[in-house]
Design a protein that fits this description.
Blueprint (H helix, E strand, L loop, with lengths): L2 H11 L4 H11 L7 H30 L1 H22 L15 H23 L8 H17 L2 H21 L4 H25 L6 H22 L3 H22 L2 H23 L2 H29 L1
């Protein structure tokens, strides 16, 4: 019996109501399908490409446009985005808040990215902070954190965490720390993010933000370990650390049914180990063969895992 036949039988026996049948039957017949994820992806890409084009325009044509023609419109866009969000947002609560409109989160994200473009242009043109320009990153991170928590926006929270990481990276490099120390500090920063996310969850403040903290922390830690595998010493310690971290991230992803963590652990592990394997091979032909075979194996494994997690979920 087909799925539609089962639905007909369930409706006839009273196991499902006529309203439930009217909802499920078109889905089975493929008369309806959700484009929710696709629309969100298009909005996100639209915002990113718009800001990228905006940055390119500012960089290429600032001499002909003039400072006022750049600073004022950017400030108006940022102010307009904030006005839109403040005028439509629900009151703040420690819990999760649904977006009042479909594009609400993306308007706020657009405003934050435009603010970053404007701040970069102001420093480039007027050098207000000069050698201490990295404090722009710190101020931006503080603003992003405030907006992320006020409007319950995980895009902006990710922007805040990455901007804060950039501040610490620049500041430490200026203080004379070498690449090895920066890697260790990146691992410490990742641990700090994981601890901060866990603390806010225990405190009951935006508990759903924990996932964002862990996503950023995982990428920062794994990227630092891959960098150590590429050029750190002692090499074996970085390799061992990368293998352990990737295994831990993949195990957590499998246990919690979070496929993104499985991808992180697999991708970073593959890149890190490939660096050492390619160095050991040395021959171009075998190197190309290795990448063809290994990349196909990784893709097939990820597809199989995604199907398994989808069934378990």
């Amino acid at each position: 019996m087909t799925v539609l036949g089962y639905l007909d039988a369930w409706r006839a026996s009273g196991r499902i109501s006529a309203e439930e049948y009217a909802t499920l039957a078109p889905v089975v017949r493929k008369e309806r399908f959700s484009v929710f994820l696709e629309l969100h992806a298009l909005l996100y890409l639209g915002v990113v490409f718009f800001v990228a084009g905006l940055g390119w325009t500012v960089r290429e044509h600032f001499t002909s446009l003039g400072d006022a023609a750049i600073v004022v419109p950017l400030a108006l866009v940022f102010a307009g985005c904030l006005y839109y969000c403040f005028s439509r947002a629900q009151p703040y609560t420690h819990g999760q808040v649904e977006s009042p409109t479909f594009g609400f989160d993306y308007v706020l994200y657009l405003g934050c990215l435009v603010f970053a473009v404007e701040l970069g242009y102001i420093e480039f043109r007027f050098e207000l902070l000069q050698a201490n320009w990295d404090f722009y990153l710190l101020m931006s991170a503080a603003l992003y954190f405030t907006l992320a928590y006020r409007f319950d926006n995980r895009f902006v929270l990710s922007l805040a965490l990455s901007t804060l990481a950039g501040f610490f990276g620049v500041r430490l490099s200026w203080l004379g720390f070498g690449p090895g120390t920066l890697r260790v500090n990146a691992l410490a920063y990742a641990a700090l993010l994981a601890a901060a996310g866990s603390w806010t969850r225990r405190a009951g403040v935006k508990t759903h933000f924990l996932d964002t903290y862990l996503h950023v922390a995982s990428n920062v830690a794994l990227a630092a370990l891959v960098s150590g595998v590429a050029s750190g010493e002692p090499r074996w310690l970085w390799i061992a650390g990368l293998i352990f971290a990737c295994a831990f991230v993949i195990e957590r992803g499998m246990r919690t049914l979070r496929f993104a963590y499985v991808v992180y652990g697999t991708a970073y592990g593959y890149v890190g180990l490939s660096i050492r394997i390619v160095d050991a091979i040395g021959d171009l032909g075998f190197t190309l063969l290795y990448f063809v075979v290994s990349s196909l194996a990784v893709i097939i494994s990820l597809v199989a895992v995604s199907h398994r997690l989808g069934r378990e979920e």
